[in-house]
Amino acid sequence: MTDFKRANLSMTWKLLAIALGAFGFGFALVPLYNVLCSVTGYGDQTKLLQRVKAIEHPDPSRTVTIEFLADVASSGGWDFRPVVRTIEVHPGQIYSAEFIAHNLTGHASTAQAVPNIAPSMVAAYFHKTECFCFSPQHFALNEERKMPVRFIVDPALPKHVDRITLAYTFYDESSRVSSAR
Amino acid sequence: MAEQHAHAAEHDDHDHKPHGWRRWVYATNHKDIGTMYLIFACTMFFIGGAMAMVIRLELFKPGMQFVDPQFFNSMTTMHALMMIFGAVMPAWTGLANWMIPLQVGAPDMALPRLNNFSFWILPFAFTLLLSSLFVPGGAPAGGWTMYPPLVLQNGASFPMLIFSIHLMGASSILGAINVVVTIMNLRAPGMTLLRMPLFVWTWLITAYLLIAVMPVLAGAVTMLLTDHFFGTTFFTAAGGGDPVMFQHIFWFFGHPEVYILILPAFGIVSEIIPTFSRKPLFGYEAMVYATASIAFLSFIVWAHHMFTVGMPLAAQLFFMLSTMLIAIPTGVKVFNWTTTMFRGSLTFEPPMLFAIAFLFLFSIGGFSGLMLAIVPADYQYQDTYFVVAHFHYVLVPGAIFGIMAGVYYWLPKWVGNMYDQTLAKWHFWLSTIFVNVLFFPQHFLGLAGMPRRIPDYAVQFTDWNMVSSIGGFGFGLAQLLFPYLIWKCVKSGERVVGNKAWEGAHGLEWELPSPAPYHSWGTPPSETMIARGAAH
Which residues of A fall within a CB distance of 8 Å from B181? Predict the structure, then answer.
C-alpha cells in the first residue's frame, strides 16, 4: 500500500469515527436535555413536587375566610349555588367545598363553570387541586347534582389578605351558541 | 496510485472506458458517478414537483376538489422529502463529484468504490420511500419533520420512512467523507487551501456539516423506531419521555441541514459572478471566513424553529439573537457579490442570469428569515404560509437556482457542446417570473393567517391561492425546458472551441479541453495553471 492510499484510509476512518460520534451525540442529547432542564429549572418535576410539599404545611395560627359565589350566564334554566356561603380555612391545608346545580332548562344539557378569584392578585396563592370547572358537566333532564372543588391556600399568602372570594359563572350550551353568533 | 497515474496518462488520448451497463453499475469514475447523481436528482426533482402540482391543484379553490385530506398531507410530506433528500442534496453531490477533482487538480475522487456505493444506495432509498405510497394507510403524512406522536400513527409506511432516511443518511455521510478526503489529500501540489475555488471551499464546509449532523438525524429516527416497536419511551410522556425533545434533536440536525442545502450554491454563485463580471471575486478570504462562520452559527440556533413549544425567556432571547447574528456573515457575502459586479464588464449569459436572480431572491428569503427570528413576531408567523414562502424563497430561487446556474455554467465543459442559450434564457425568465408569482403571494396569505399543511382554507384566501397556483403550474411547466435543453445540447449542441466556454472563466477546470477527458489530471496541473486559475 502506498503512503498515499494509507493517508486516504486513515482520514476516512477518522471521519467515520466522527460520524459515529455524532450518532452517539444524538442519543447523548437525551440526558443532556434533562440536565439542561434541571439546571434552568424548566419543566422540572422534582421542583414542582418540592413546591407542592412546601405548600402542604398547615398553619393553624392563621385563618382566612373563603366566600363562595355562584352565577348563571344566561338568565333562567339553571339553579346554581354553593352548599355553604363561607368557610374559614388555615393556609397549607386541603379543603373541599360543594356547589349544587339543578338543570331546569327542560332538556338534557352540558354546562361549564368558569372560576374567578378576587382579589385577582391572590389567584397565584389559591390552588385548586380538583374542580368541576376543569371539564364540561353533562346534566340529564331535571338532574340535580352536587359538584366538588378541592383547594389549598398557599402559606405564602400575603399577610394582609384575610378574605378570598371564589366566584363561578355557569355557561351552558345555549349561551355558548349565542355568544358565537 | 502511482500506477493509476501512469495508467491514466497512457489512456488519456482515447478515453478508455467500460461499455454498456457495467460502466454505470460498476462506475468508479467521478464524472460517471457525478452524471448519475445529477440524472437521479433531476428525476426526483420532477417527481417531487409533480407532488407540488397536486398540492397547488387542490389549493386552487377552497373546498375539497381532487384529493382526500390524508393524501394531501402525504403530498406535502413526500414533496419535502423528495426535494430535500432526493433532488437538492444529490444534485450537490453530483456537482461535487464532477467538479471538485477537476478544480483541485485531482485525477479522481479519493475513494472511488465508496463513491459508487454511496450513489447506488440512493435508488434503493427512494424506491423504498416512494413505494410507501402504495401500502395500507398511505405514504407518510405527518410532515417531513416527523414529529411524534403524529408520525408514529402512520401505519405501514412508518418503518419504510425511517429506513429510507437511514439509507439517505448513510449515502450522504459517505459522499461527504469522500469529498473531505479528496480535498484534504488529493489537491495538486501548489493548490493551497486559500487558492481553492469557492465551490470547493463551500463544499468542504458543507461536508463537515453533513458528517456532524446526518448521524444525529439517524439517531433521532432510530429513537422513533424503537419507541414504536421496542417499547422505549424517548418521546412518550407516559414513560417519562418528552415529545418536545424530538423537536430539539431534529432541529439540531435540521438547521445545519438548511445550510447544507444552500452553502454549495454560495460557492457556485461566487464563481459565476466574477466570470461574467470579468473581475476577480471581491473579498475571497472574507467569503471563506463568512462561510465558516455561518456553518458554526448553524449549530447554536436550532430552537428558532420551535419558539412556540415553550421555553425559558433566556433561551428565547439566546436563540433569537444568535439567529440574527447569521445575518452578518450572510450580509458580507451579499455585499461581496454585489461589489464584484460593481464596475465590472457584465454580460448576461444564462448562468449569470440565474446567479443574479439568486442574489436578489435569496436575499428576500433571508429577510423573511430575519422576521421569523423575532420571537414575538414568530408567534404570529409560526405554521403559516409565511413560513412556507420564506423557506421556498431560500430553497427554490436559492438552492435550485444555484444548481441550475452551476449546470448552465459547466455543462459546456461536461459535454463539449454549447447549449441553446436563447432557450436557456427563456427557461430563466419563465422560472424567475413564475417563481415569484408562485411564492410571493404566500407571504400575504401567511400574514393574513392561512395555516400551512391544510387541504382546504377559508374563502378570503381564495384569490392569492389562485395566483399562487397559476405561478406553480407555470413554474412547473417551465422546468420541462431544462432536461430538453440538456438533451438537445448533448445531441446537437454547437462544439465548444478551446478550453474555455466563457471568456472570463478562471480555474483549473477551464485548463482542460472540452469536453473534459474521461481521465483528467493524470499528470497534475502545473504551477502556472494553478496561479492563473486562482486569480483572486
Answer: 8, 11-12, 15
B chain contacts of residue A20, beta-carbon cutoff 8 Å: 215
Residue with cell 425567556: B313
Distance CA B394, CA B402 (A): 10
A residues 27-66 near B, CB within 8 Å?
A: 27, 29-30, 33, 40, 42-43
A15 and B217 in contact by Cβ < 8 A? no
Active-site option among B7, B17, B248, B452:
B452
Structural domain spans, chain B: 2-12+55-533
Domain B2-12+55-533 has CATH 1.20.210.10: yes
What ipTM was estimated for this complex?
A: 0.84
Number of alpha carbons in the 13 Å side-chain half-sphere of residue A149 = 26
Q: Which of B177, B220, B234 sits opposite A15 (nearest CB)?
A: B177
pTM attached to this predicted model: 0.82
| Rounded Cα–Cα distance for residues B442 and B387 (Å) | 9
Instruction: Return the C-alpha cell found at A178.
Output: 349565542
Query: What confidence tens digit (pLDDT) does each residue in B172-181 have?
Result: 999 999 999 9
Grid look-up 431560500 returns B394
Paired with A88 in beta bridges are A65
Between CA B381 and CA B388, with CA B384 as vertex, the angle to 5 degrees is: 105
Q: Do B311 and A42 touch (CB under 8 A)?
A: yes
Confidence tier at B364 by pLDDT (50, 70, 90): very high
Q: In this predicted model, what pLDDT tens digit does every residue of B287-334 receive, in sequence order? A: 999 999 999 999 999 999 999 998 888 889 999 999 999 999 999 999
Q: Is A13 on the interface with B (CB under 8 A)?
A: no
> Which residue matches cell numbers 401500502?
B135
- Residue B339 catalytic? no
What is the C-alpha separation between B536 and B531, in angstroms, rounded? 9
Contact assignment for B216 to A8 by CB distance below 8 Å: no
**Are B166 and B215 contacting, i.e. CB atoms less than 8 angstroms apart?**
no
d(CA B217, CA B223): 10
Q: Is B36 exposed, middle or buried (0-12, 13-18, 19+ CB in 10 A)?
A: buried
